[in-house]
Design brief:
This protein is of the alpha/beta class and about 400 residues long. About 40% of the residues lie in helices and about 10% in strands. The protein is globular, with a radius of gyration of 23 Å. The protein starts with about 20 loop residues before the first helix and ends with a helix.
């Protein structure tokens, strides 16, 4: 066999249009390989690694299925599953274009949590087909990380998989974001001398991340919260709401405000942007004194960080290179590591809250306006999150 890159190399003498972009060099040929844990240097090695030795192991597992946890890699491997419908800020770009992102996610699992993971991109967007496919491949894995699946389909897919699989399942775009947002907001509240229960939050965006952030903030005891989609604030008087948006309307927006997101920001303590677009300076200026602005759209935040800093005590974005980067890598490696270490059969709300507390605690007494959340490269985070999640799983009795 020849060089496995030969089919995509430029024709002889023609320029390579990707040569000057370092991102393409990092991804060329893919970013993952699979290697054995032991060498095969002899006939005896071969006989033990494959036939006939492997038959004894397979027979033992057939008679006692729980032995698979000890004698296969499956319990310690995460499937990173996507249909390519909501990839980063690129939208519905399909499974092939999504694969580099899923490979990158697998690299992060390895780097930060020591977990093997396998990218799985699906050439279907049908909810039933996705659910059935993931269930069919689940015996090969110890956890399912759903990634970049568009709302509202992602809610049903995750819920159905959680109901039918006895391994951890998490849609990271929802819950990873929510965990890190809660951690950062806990510390931001400390900076301004407030309690979570005193804060009024306005969430811009009712997609996967917006809904999950709203739910975890409610679980954490936030004072009040209003959520906006493209048509304005969600309230019970609206007749255009999906079932999940109806739930949000019934559990938020205590005063029943029926106006715009801009109007809701007047006097608000926290802006949480998860939608894109832009917010005028006048709206940020109308917020409460010592307000908190988390503007998380990438690559362009909804609120310019420099402008926000004129009015807000704490500013966070999703951008690298900026203080207080809200990055999912602070959550998902440790969450899955802890769940898998404990043999958890699911990832519960309590485990997510424990993860958020662990992330916030890494900052500890060093908290300040430009440091409410750890760096994505802080190696302490995944360890702390894994320990907290595993302990919570055991306390709840959801571990094997």
């Amino acid at each position: 066999m020849g060089d496995n890159h030969s089919s995509v190399e430029p024709a002889q003498g023609s320029p390579d249009r990707f040569a000057d972009d370092p991102a393409f060099a990092v991804h060329e040929g893919g970013k993952l390989v699979v290697r054995p844990t032991r060498p095969i240097d002899s006939v005896a090695d071969l006989a033990l690694t494959y036939t006939p030795g492997v038959a004894r192991v397979s027979s033992a597992i057939a008679g006692e299925p729980d032995l698979a946890r000890r004698f296969t890699w499956a319990p310690r491997v995460v499937a990173v599953v996507s249909d390519g419908t909501a990839v980063l800020g690129l939208g519905d770009i399909g499974p092939a274009a999504a694969l580099p992102v899923m490979e990158g996610k697998a690299c992060l699992f390895s780097e930060f949590a020591g977990l093997s993971s396998v990218p799985v991109v699906l050439s279907t967007t049908d909810v039933d087909e996705i659910v059935d496919t993931v269930i069919a491949i689940a015996p090969s894995f110890g956890g399912i990380n759903l990634e970049d699946i568009s709302a509202p389909r992602c809610f049903e897919i995750e819920e159905r998989l959680r109901e039918r699989l006895a391994i951890p399942v998490m849609h990271d775009d929802q819950h990873g974001t929510a965990i890190v947002v809660l951690a950062a907001l806990r510390n931001a509240a400390r900076v301004v001398g407030r309690e979570l229960g005193d804060l009024r939050v306005v969430v811009s965006g009712a997609g996967a991340a917006g809904i999950a952030c709203t739910k975890i903030l409610l679980e954490a005891g936030i004072g009040d919260i209003a959520v906006a989609d493209s048509q304005g604030i969600l309230h019970t008087g609206r007749e255009d709401l999906t079932p999940i948006k109806r739930w949000v309307a019934e559990n938020t927006n205590r005063v029943g405000y029926a106006g715009t997101m801009i109007g809701a920001l007047e006097g608000a303590d926290v802006y949480l942007g998860l939608s894109g677009g832009s917010v005028p300076e006048s709206a940020i200026a109308s917020m409460a004194k010592d307000c908190i602005v988390f503007s998380l759209a990438n690559p362009i935040p909804e609120v310019d960080p420099e402008m926000a800093a004129k009015y807000a005590a704490v500013v966070a974005t999703g951008r690298s290179g900026e203080p207080n980067q809200i990055n999912n890598v602070l959550a998902f490696p440790g969450v899955f590591r802890g769940a898998i270490d404990a043999g958890a059969t699911s990832i519960t709300e309590e485990m997510k809250l424990a993860a958020a507390t662990a992330i916030a605690d890494v900052v500890g007494e060093d908290v300040r306006p430009d440091y409410v959340v750890p760096s994505p490269l802080d190696r302490r985070v995944a360890v702390a999150v894994a320990e907290a999640v595993a302990a919570c799983a055991r306390e709840q009795g959801v571990a094997h």
